[in-house]
Amino acid sequence: MEPTTRRRRAVAVVAACAAGLLALSGCASAHGGKRAQEAADALAAGHANTPRIKIAMVTHAGPGDTFWDLVRKGAQAAAAKDNVDLVYSADPNAANQANLVQNAIDQKVAGIAVTLAKPDAMKGVVTQAEKAGIPVVGLNAGIEDWKSQGLLEYFGQDDGIAGQELGDKLDQSGAKHVLCVIHEQGNVSLEDRCAGLKKTFHGRTDILYVNGTDMPSVKSTLTAKLQQDHSIDEIVTLGAPFALTAVQAESDAGSKARIATFDLNSDLVNAIKDGSIQLAVDQQPYLQGYLAIDGLWLYKYNGDTSGGGQAVLTGPAFVDKSNVASVAKFAADGTR
């Protein structure tokens, strides 16, 4: 299936009903009569008065990572609106993440939002949640696996498509030799980004694996690679902190390569402003966290699902010097 077709089918249902704005007539009136009024009444001045429920969010990365801090902020905003007790936990080790999901099942939560960065490791425990009657939604990682594992909905970016679109952009910019830096081997989302880039980029693409948990090591490994191969004219990193480290490595290596990255944070926005970073691929992590929690609340209290059986796409959006000012104010507030 062509990328444009897939994106049309995976409609980004992020306005109106999918954002939980049941008080708007367009959502409430669709049900008609008493039930519609009850749904509208559930949101009093933007805050639900539905019974308090507990929802767990279990991710493969967490506090201290600027990207995941944004995911969590979005989840917390939805939880505050929806009268939800949010239980957030994370672990980069897939087996440990699965144990955290099991803990949520044992707590008899009303719903679980989970990332499938390493889907095979999560399959068994997701099945256990579903057998326990707990609805599960996916976010951020696992777009190729959420349906087969029986998840209710998925909110995120198609990383393969995002990589392909970045490849097209780098072709247009005149790049000839790209180094794609993967900071966590085996993470399907990261692997898909570089694979997508390689599919559409007409020049040479090399993959460099680094230890993302050790930033000094990332810097030294990248510096050595740039010193070894002066033909590299584009560095693509898969997270904002790694792009900022790449700026340092480029300087140390005496390289003239441009730097593009996936994902944003406030420092990355400033780097785009000053020209040290060429562009960023934004998948809107705050929105992913928000929609995952709000989607579970909507399903619990109104039987709603989003996407029509397809993933709800939150990206890719490209941020460069032409539009960074419009994003900067939200980044300064800690939500982009």
From TrEMBL:
Compartments, record wording: Cell envelope
Record keywords, A-Z: Signal
InterPro entries: Bact_Solute-Bind_Prot2 (IPR050555), Peripla_BP_I (IPR028082), SBP_2_dom (IPR025997)
Secretion signal span: 1-30
Gene3D superfamilies: 3.40.50.2300
Limits of the Periplasmic binding protein domain: 56-296
Family: Belongs to the bacterial solute-binding protein 2 family.
PANTHER family noted in UniProt: ABC TRANSPORTER PERIPLASMIC-BINDING PROTEIN YPHF (PTHR30036:SF7), D-XYLOSE-BINDING PERIPLASMIC PROTEIN (PTHR30036)
Protein name per the record: Substrate-binding domain-containing protein
The species this protein was found in: Streptantibioticus parmotrematis
